[in-house]
Design goal:
With 275 residues, this protein is mainly beta. The chain contains one helix and 22 strands. The protein has two domains: 128 residues, Methylamine Dehydrogenase, Chain H (7 Propeller); 100 residues, Thrombin, subunit H, CATH 2.40.10. 4% of the residues lie in helices and 46% in strands.
Length: 275
Amino acid sequence: MGPYKVLKTAKVGGDGGFDYVYADADGRRLYIARTGATPRITVFNLDTLEPAGEIPKIAAHGAAVSPKTHHGFASSKPVAMWDTKTMEIIKTIEVQGNPDGIMHDAFNDRVYIFSHSAPNATVINAADGSIAGTIDLGGAPEQAASDGKGHIYVDLEDKDKVAVIDAKTLTVTGGYDLTGKGGTCAGLAMDVKNELLFASCRNPQNMVALTAAGKILTTLPLGAGTDGAVFKPEDYGGLQLAARRHVDHCQGEEPDRVRSGADGADHGEREDLHA
């Protein structure tokens, strides 16, 4: 039995589905981008799950926040940028492609907007909303992770690969082939401390654990329909166990504790919000 349990359920309500749910740990807010006839971003208090406001007329898949500038961004077209304190729109940013995934990288305070069609990544400066550049990843990106040191890792769903981006030059510097180990990968998480990546894949239906240098360590079975991955550094979840054991063995140590269970993401048209 895992260490996770539902603490509270809040009714989201209203029409429209949602894809990514984003928790702003610093600002203590939860952002849910809603699609449908009345597109909007609904905002909740992260601690109480009480409604905290709404940003109307934005059709997006997800949101991300820069804690440094207190600017929020949505993977909409055009991309919306707002003040997280007032929830007022600052500007909209014209981008190409079809915005889907989104990630804020604290390394140089930039926001990455991912698109299955070219350009696969549009990079925005969080301070003023200017476009720093675009990147052709050679495939359809889903989820990304940063090591906080200038490297971005992105899983390419249609190529069974993980692409590596230099955050300084905005160029692709390498790629890791997952063929035969995991395919149609829709989630990617990172254990930054131990430099481990976890790619959640649909066909084969595995979690692929690999080093940040691209060495595949192991695969672990997953349930159907995986669409995201999260790593919690304070827990040894079941999906991280085998890779964790590999690292501990290399370091001449044994895990001091092992917990079953795993973090993930569940997306779709749902009306309940759990904490």
